[in-house]
C-alpha cells in the first residue's frame, strides 16, 4: 500500500475535521460543490473504534468510497486501544490515521486526552508508537499515521513539543498555531509554523507539515504554503462562509456568491434529506441549524427563511417550511 501523504501532489488542501459538521453527509455535499484533496472524519474515541465489530461501525466513521481519500481521526488515552483501533482502521480500508492532540475543550484536556497530551509527552509517544504498530499489524497493508496538534498548552513551546513530536516518526504533522488555552482566540502564530518547518528539516525531513488556523481560501492557503514552506494547509471554519471554498482546486471553479437563490435552497434541501436518511434518530436534528447559516445567505428572503428554519424541530417541519417559503417567493 503506498503512503497517501507521499503520493499526493503538493501543496495539499485538506478540510479540517469538525465535529457534527464534517460527517459523511457534508462530505458528499462538498464533493458536489468542490472537494478538498483529502477529508478527515470527526474525532472518534478509540474505545468506539476498538469495539468494532461488536458494537458496529461508529457513525463518525461512516463513509462512501467517493469520500476518499479519507483519514480517520481518533482520540483517547489508552495506547492499547489505539493499537487495536489502528488495526481495525487498516482492515476497513481507510487512507490514514490521525491522532487528535489538539482539541482544547476543558473537560477533554483535563482528563489528559487531546491537547492534554501536550503536557504528557511520554504518553503521547506511547500512543504514537502503539498506533503505528496497529497500523502495521495487518496482512492487508499499512497506513500512514499523523498527528494534529497545537503549539503549546498554556504557552507556546514549539521547540520542545513540536521538536518532540517530530522525533516520533510520524508521516504528517498538522499544526494549529495557537496554544490550547487560546482555543480559537488571538492571532495565529505564523512564526511558530516557520519554526516547525525548520525543525522538520533538521529532525524529520520525511514528515509533511500542514498549517492550520484562520485560513480563509485556497488562494490564501497557497500563499502561506509558499511563504512558510509547509506542504499543505488544513482549512476548517472558512467552509461556513463558502461551500465552494475548494472549487478552485477543480476544473470549473465556482463561487457560492454566484449561485442563484434556487440553487442555494436546493443544495440545502439535499443536505436535509441526506442527513435524515443517514442519521434519522441517531444524530440530533439541531445540528442542521449550523448549516442553515451556511447555505441561506446573499439573497432576498434568506434571513427570513433562516429564522423560520431555526424555529423548526425536525427534518419534516424544515422541509415543509422551505416548500411554503418557495411557494410564496418565486426565484428564477
Ligand atoms: C465545530 C468545530 C468542530 C471541530 N471538531 C474537531 C475535531 O473533531 N477534530 C479536530 O482535530 N479539530 C476539530 N476542530 C478544530 C478544527 O479542525 C480546526 O483545527 C480549527 O477550527 C482551526 O482551523 P480554522 O481556523 O481553519 O477553522 C473543530 C472546530 C470546529 C469549529
Secondary-structure blueprint:
Elements: H1 4-7, E1 12-15, H2 24-33, E2 39-40, E3 44-45, H3 46-50, E4 70-75, H4 79-92, E5 96-101, H5 106-109, H6 121-136, E6 145-150, H7 158-165, E7 172-176, H8 190-203, E8 208-212, H9 218-228, E9 232-235, H10 261-279, H11 288-295, H12 302-310, H13 315-328
Parallel strand pairs: 1-9, 2-4, 3-4, 4-5, 5-6, 6-7, 7-8, 8-9
Bound molecules: flavin mononucleotide (FMN).
Flavin mononucleotide binds at residues 16-19, 21, 42-43, 73, 100, 102-103, 148, 176, 212-215, 235-238.
Give a quick precis of the structure.
This protein is an alpha/beta fold and 332 residues long. 41% of the residues lie in helices and 12% in strands.
Helices, by number, come to 13
- Tell me which ligands are bound: flavin mononucleotide
pLDDT averaged residue by residue: 96
User: How many strands, what sense, and barrel or not for the largest sheet?
Assistant: 9 strands, parallel
Number of domains: 2
Q: Roughly what percent helix?
A: 40-55%
Q: Give the CA-CA distance, first to last residue.
A: 49 Å
How much strand? 5-15%
The run of helices and strands is: HEHEEHEHEHHEHEHEHEHHHH
What is the name of the CATH architecture of the largest domain? Alpha-Beta Barrel
CATH superfamily of the largest domain: Aldolase class I
Oligomer description: single chain
Q: Can you tell me the CATH topology of the largest domain?
A: TIM Barrel
Q: Quick one: how many beta strands?
A: 9
Which CATH top level class of the largest domain fits?
Alpha Beta
Structural classification? alpha/beta
Low-confidence stretches: none
The Rg value, from CA coordinates, equals 20 Å
User: How would you sum up the global shape?
Assistant: globular
Amino acid at each position: 500500500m503506498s503512503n497517501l501523504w507521499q503520493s499526493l501532489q503538493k501543496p495539499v488542501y485538506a478540510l479540517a475535521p469538525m465535529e457534527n459538521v464534517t460527517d459523511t453527509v457534508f462530505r458528499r455535499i462538498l464533493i458536489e460543490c468542490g472537494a478538498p484533496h483529502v477529508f478527515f472524519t470527526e474525532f472518534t474515541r478509540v474505545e468506539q473504534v476498538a469495539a468494532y465489530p461488536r458494537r458496529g461501525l461508529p457513525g463518525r466513521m461512516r463513509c462512501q468510497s467517493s469520500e476518499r481519500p479519507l483519514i480517520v481521526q481518533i482520540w483517547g488515552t489508552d495506547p492499547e486501544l489505539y493499537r487495536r483501533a489502528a488495526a481495525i482502521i487498516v482492515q476497513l480500508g481507510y487512507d490514514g490515521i490521525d491522532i487528535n492532540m489538539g482539541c482544547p475543550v476543558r473537560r477533554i484536556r483535563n482528563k489528559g486526552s487531546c491537547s492534554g497530551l501536550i503536557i504528557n509527552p511520554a504518553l503521547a509517544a506511547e500512543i504514537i508508537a502503539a498506533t503505528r504498530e496497529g497500523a502495521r499489524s495487518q496482512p492487508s497493508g499499512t497506513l500512514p499515521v499523523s498527528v494534529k496538534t497545537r503549539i503549546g498548552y498554556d504557552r507556546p513551546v514549539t521547540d520542545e513539543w513540536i521538536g518532540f513530536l517530530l522525533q516520533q516518526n510520524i508521516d504528517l504533522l498538522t499544526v494549529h498555531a495557537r496554544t490550547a488555552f487560546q482555543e480559537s482566540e488571538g492571532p495565529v502564530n505564523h512564526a511558530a509554523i516557520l519554526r516547525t518547518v525548520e525543525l522538520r528539516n533538521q529532525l524529520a525531513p520525511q514528515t509533511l507539515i500542514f498549517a492550520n488556523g484562520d485560513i480563509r481560501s485556497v488562494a490564501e492557503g497557497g500563499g502561506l504554503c509558499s511563504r512558510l514552506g509547509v506542504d499543505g494547509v488544513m482549512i476548517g471554519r472558512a467552509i461556513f462562509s463558502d461551500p465552494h471554498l475548494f472549487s478552485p482546486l477543480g476544473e470549473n471553479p465556482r463561487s457560492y456568491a454566484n449561485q442563484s437563490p434556487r440553487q442555494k435552497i436546493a443544495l440545502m434541501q439535499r443536505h436535509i434529506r441526506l442527513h435524515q436518511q443517514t442519521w434519522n434518530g441517531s444524530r440530533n436534528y439541531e445540528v442542521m441549524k449550523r448549516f442553515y447559516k451556511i447555505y441561506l445567505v446573499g439573497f432576498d428572503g434568506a434571513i427570513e427563511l433562516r429564522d423560520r428554519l431555526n424555529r423548526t424541530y425536525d427534518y419534516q417541519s424544515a422541509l415543509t417550511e422551505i416548500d411554503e417559503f418557495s411557494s410564496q417567493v418565486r426565484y428564477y
